[in-house]
Amino acid sequence: MLVSALPFAAAAPQGPAPVTEAVDDAAAARLAERVRAEFLHAWSGYRRYAWGHDALRPLSRTPRDWYRQSLLMTPVDALDTMILMGLEEQARETRELIATGLSFDQDTDVKHFEIVIRLLGGLLSGYQLSGDERLLKLAEDLGTRLLPAFASPTGLPYVYVNLRSGKTHGDDSNPAEAGTLLLEYGTLSKLSGKPVFYERAKRALVETYRRRSRLDLVGERFDVTTGRWTSTRSHVGARIDSYYEYLWKCWRLFADPQCLAMWKRSSAAANRYYPEEVDGALWYGQVEMSTGRRTGSEYGALEAFYPGLLAYSGDLERARRLQASSFAMWNLHGIEPQAYDYRRRRITQPGYALRPEIVESTWYLYRLTGEAQYRAMGRKLFEDFVRYCRTETAYAALADVTTKAQADDMESFVMAETFKYFYLLFAPPATLDPRQVVLNTEAHPLRRTWPAK
Ligand code: DMJ
């Protein structure tokens, strides 16, 4: 059976859309197995050439660390994916590596936001899925060491914090870095019984929201000391993206009514000012936060999370249309670019960093609509992903999606997110239900195991 090409064709920036065969349950089960095998391929490369380090450089087959000493970024990001895939032996070995080899007592200035979404999120979900108390202890130690980041005059977190001394620096921050913390710190509060984590992260989210314009839009950069905007570009892409995501998800996980109220106002403004119709296709571009004046027409790999968020928050119609545009952008070269100017029909940033967002949205749309087109879409994405990004050793980013030249980089989020969302799309629905679990922005699933208010 062929799935109609029409929903894709309507948004295609150029050329005919691919006709994609439906994925029935038996085919989906085979695809889930393939995803699992490809995850193992990437993991084996890491294990062989970069064991104990933050990441693998897949072309040179050398390890990469973010700082002087490893923080086990790839193992912590990968652990819950292994558990969900039923890779028991790998999960046990990884859990032991983390529990016995990870120490946060380091004289290192770390990037607060990245450490929270990848490490704090990964440790908390790893704990919830395995029951291993050592992971919770590590999470509490990490959370405590990171807390000084919030000690700015505004409550907006500094960009860097030293894990040993608590010294902070970095004033130039943004809504994503200040507003994408509450799921992790909040869960830590609920599991440790210490409200301080929730309170600090919630304040940072509210302080960001409080600085919105008359139109209920936020900008792209602010100074954490003065609280003033330093860039007033507004959109759903880099530096803002997951701020929107957490307004909604914090309501879902904690039932905090203030989060719901902030989400309602913010998403209404987003849906009013960002969208643009070009030849019948829906895109979300850039505007100026206080006037709503259009300043850009770029959409890309990061913006591609928005259809999933629209679907998750109940707006299926917009979600379907924007996802069709993401898929059309992907199909221009069989892999999406980091950024594409949909008005000029030109790629503006040609790299592909193995990002998960388009797969994430495909999964939400499939799970929330049950429509066959989304598994078919997922298979196309997966086949292209394997075709162009697989290496002999693992997976590699692309320096340029038009030439398919590979880059010596495999970010830890590939293990946390990209493979996980592919797997969830094809695996039995009971593997993870988005109605019962909230995934943080790094795809670490968090469960409400504490009593509702
Ligand atoms: C991840 O670290 C997170 O999904 C973040 O919110 C955005 N960037 C990467 C994936 O692209």
The helix-and-strand class reads: alpha+beta
Q: Might you state the CATH topology name?
A: Glycosyltransferase
Shape: globular
Strand order of the largest sheet: 5-6-7
Identify the bound ligands: 1-deoxymannojirimycin
Write down the overall mean pLDDT.
95
- CATH architectural arrangement: Alpha/alpha barrel
Which secondary structure elements does this structure contain, and how are they paired or packed?
Blueprint: E1 2-3, H1 6-9, E2 20-21, H2 25-50, E3 55-57, E4 62-64, H3 73-84, H4 88-101, E5 109-111, H5 112-130, H6 133-146, E6 160-162, E7 168-169, E8 172-173, H7 175-179, H8 182-192, H9 196-210, E9 221-223, E10 229-231, E11 233-234, H10 241-254, H11 257-273, E12 275-278, E13 281-284, E14 286-288, E15 294-296, E16 298-299, H12 306-312, H13 316-333, E17 339-341, E18 346-349, H14 357-369, H15 372-389, E19 398-400, E20 405-406, H16 413-426, E21 437-439, E22 445-447
Antiparallel strand pairs: 1-2, 3-4, 5-6, 6-7, 8-9, 9-10, 11-14, 12-13, 14-15, 16-17, 17-18, 19-20, 21-22
Helix pairs in contact: 2-15, 2-16, 3-4, 3-5, 3-16, 5-6, 5-8, 6-8, 8-9, 10-11, 12-13, 12-14, 13-14, 14-15, 14-16
1-deoxymannojirimycin binds next to helix 16.
